[in-house]
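Quick one: structure tokens for this chain, please?
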Amino acid sequence: MKIFNIELLPATYGDCILIEYGQIDQLKRILIDGGTGGTRHAISSRFAVLEEHNRNLELMVITHIDRDHIEGTLRILEQETLSFGIRDVWFNGWKHLQEQFDSDEAFGAEQGEHVSAAILKHGLEWNNDFEGHAVVIKSDGHLPTIMLPGGMRLTLLSPSAKSLRDLSPVWIKDLKKEGLIPGFGEVVNEVIAEDEDEAFGSESPDVDQLNQLPFDEDHSEANASSIAFIAEYGGRRVLFLGDAQPGQIYDSLKKIQPQGKIKIDLCKISHHASRGNTSPSLLELLDCRHFAISTNGSNYYHPHQETIARIIKRSSPGVTLYFNYRTEHNSMWDNQALKHIHNYTTVYGTQGIKIEL
């Protein structure tokens, strides 16, 4: 039996996703992002229960430089000795942005630079699947496809060369926006309280009205640089979208499926279901009923209600929503009347959530 499991670890308001695939006695693993700094404990605990010879990653993906994706990974990589092996790391650092244009200007985004230094310190393979170059869709529009050991097939959907080029002028500015200062991302104005009790909202949202709200696409350069891909194994297909912008994902998917809908078994929704990263046109392109959202809602109050409403109304009938936390920002969707009227179900995790395909 071929296993394909997706586990959304408890990553506060960020992403940390562990993929397991292969035969039950020969599972292989991929880690996508590391959440905020404290998520490193969940990552370490997850590997600690494995037999020592089995503590390996076929791939570590650091989708982009936003703190809620990169910080936990950085704290893992900053350790003197890694507790697991890594075949390859996908991460677009400053040197990869320089491939996209000619410039003598030297930026110094601290977390990006520290991740780069940590990769080099441990002698890890870095973008080896791309011959050391950027993880990017080239200007000719060809979607790179990588076959991992064990038969996992990854098709890159984002970023484009233009997105990496556009990121470089804001390499530093974006980290400041995330509340970081030089010297490995010390947090300024931290507002997370991981253990505080939450008061769950009970007001019932108007799904039809939310679905009709106008859509305005996210314009963040950092999110546009996010690595996103389709993962295919054992006849199942999953979208891992990081914080990618929907226009880029739509264009890439149309290259794979020029006509009609594209069959997807699970979609990890972009940017924690922010209102600007899941467009109606993208949802209508997918033949998909299962959607996963990673966030505890702190800082940015994700998921946004209009995004959930669009998923429910514009996807294949019988949608299932997977949340790795139950919070005041998503508990209103666990409403039996809404579920009955709009034909969807919800699944909530406690210490993360595991989805078995």
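The first strand starts at residue 2 and ends at 8.
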